[in-house]
């Protein structure tokens, strides 16, 4: 027990900014910066779906609270979208509009976790999931998976080896952040059946569903709908990261519990953000995605070629093992990160994504293609020089 006044031990274990070690160096750099550490896009949202397109005259009350479940029209549109895309009928009662996918994941974890319970997290993983689990007094358990598992049998063996009597849920992301890999259908089917037989919740982070470059994205929820929460994002889909709007689909009987958590966390998702999201679902968003997918794929191919690594299967990232470069650099990986920052190149450190002490992640969509290519060439040159 902490001796008050003191802070929570769980919070002490939550990582701060994953970029803080080089922030000061970047702030002092006077040349062109290449911010490959940021998972964002250079593209603005679809025309007609931006904040500048919303007016009080067109949307009276747009600055007031929205219903805690979400604007009814948007909830219905999302339910129809999920049904169409996943093939699993989804009713409005199975949808929660959230403050970004982050808010949606927080609502899920807050609703299902008891203090001390464990969440198996397929690694490499999105960095914030670790802190979200800890926020709700759970324990994240990394499961090395992407790049380690090659078939359904191996997938089940990986998670089973780390399951305990305290395990409550399994978290996965596909297309994966940070590796840019897709989890194949046969592995997802095996994991869903394992979760069912083990009586566990399944949390599927599918925010990059629109950006699968090879093959097709496989939706997890239809494989075990009675225990699966799928998390989605207008941020990643339509270049609306600053709007903070996403959604969760899950079992109807549990969604009311998610709504309780979200209500006491952020009350309701920003009304104007929901209006912009609703407009994107009227058609402009899908046209935007068609263009963005092509541009993102080209950026990913170009980046992988320059860096000499396999092309991404999806998402907006590459995950590089720089062990040889870090080993030859004074200070190891941290020293390499600082050296890159002193030359205006920022990347995300591998340990933020799990037990990957010699990796870095780069985002190839944060800057326009011409800027990105200059930056990737510079990064490749710096790595070859180390």
From TrEMBL:
InterPro entries (UniProt xref): Aminotransferase_I/II_large, AspAT/PAT-like, PyrdxlP-dep_Trfase, PyrdxlP-dep_Trfase_major
Species assigned in the record: Candidatus Polarisedimenticola svalbardensis
Transmembrane segments: none
UniProt xrefs under PANTHER family: ASPARTATE AMINOTRANSFERASE
Record's protein name: Pyridoxal phosphate-dependent aminotransferase
Molecular function GO labels: pyridoxal phosphate binding; transaminase activity
Cofactors required: pyridoxal 5'-phosphate
CDD domains listed in its UniProt record: AAT_like (cd00609)
Keywords: Aminotransferase, Pyridoxal phosphate, Transferase
Gene3D superfamilies recorded: Type I PLP-dependent aspartate aminotransferase-like (Major domain) (3.40.640.10)
Assigned protein family: Belongs to the class-I pyridoxal-phosphate-dependent aminotransferase family.
Domain of life: Bacteria
Example GO biological process: amino acid metabolic process
Keyword tRNA processing attributed: no
Domain Aminotransferase class I/classII large intervals: 61-378
